[in-house]
Amino acid sequence: MASIGIVTEWFERGSAYVSQALIDSLESAGHKTAIFARSEHRTRGAALWPHENLVEAQSCYLPYPKSFRRSDFDRWIDDFRPDVILFNEQVWVCPVLWAKSRGIRTIAYVDYYTSKSISDMRYYDALLCNTERHAQVMSWHPHCWYVPWGTD
Fold it and tell me: Which among 6, 62, 68, 142 has most CB atoms closer than 10 A?
């Protein structure tokens, strides 16, 4: 059994639904999960689902999308002690580097990227790509996995 942290949005948004589906799958396989919820200032307190291991990040005003304070992130890591952190649609790479500096393996759920952000994927230990196109673009990564995403 692994302890798996998920960094994601956790309010009414597609990435939250993807994260919930991943959590359901991981927990049904016996893993323990925790959510570090990125949020924008206007969504604070608007968590979509209750979860026993949910921490909502405090907003900060860095010039990066979906940024949060390192102290909040470090506290979450200290409290939950994840073996792996799965970052869902992480645009800002600093938290990935913070986790790696603490010896934590990192996985990206790749749903959004730009030509400029593709090289940032090198910081992750593995990539989960939900389309064949994403997997083709990221095929240079030694641990790029194509996991087709179904819809209902």
Answer: 6
Tokens read off for 114: 């730009």
Tokens of 44: 């604070």
pLDDT in tens, 120-136: 999 999 999 999 999 99
d(CA 71, CA 48): 24
Alpha carbons 23 and 37: distance in angstroms, whole number: 13
Question: Of 43, 100, 33, 94, which Cα lies nearest the Cα of 69?
Answer: 94
The pTM assigned to this predicted structure is: 0.90
CA 82/CA 4 separation, integer angstroms: 5
* Rounded Cα distance, 19 and 128, in Å: 12
**Main-chain phi, psi angles of 69, to 5 degrees:** -75, 135
Sorted by sequence, the CB contacts under 8 Å of residue 38 that are 6+ apart come out as 7, 8, 9, 10, 57, 66, 68
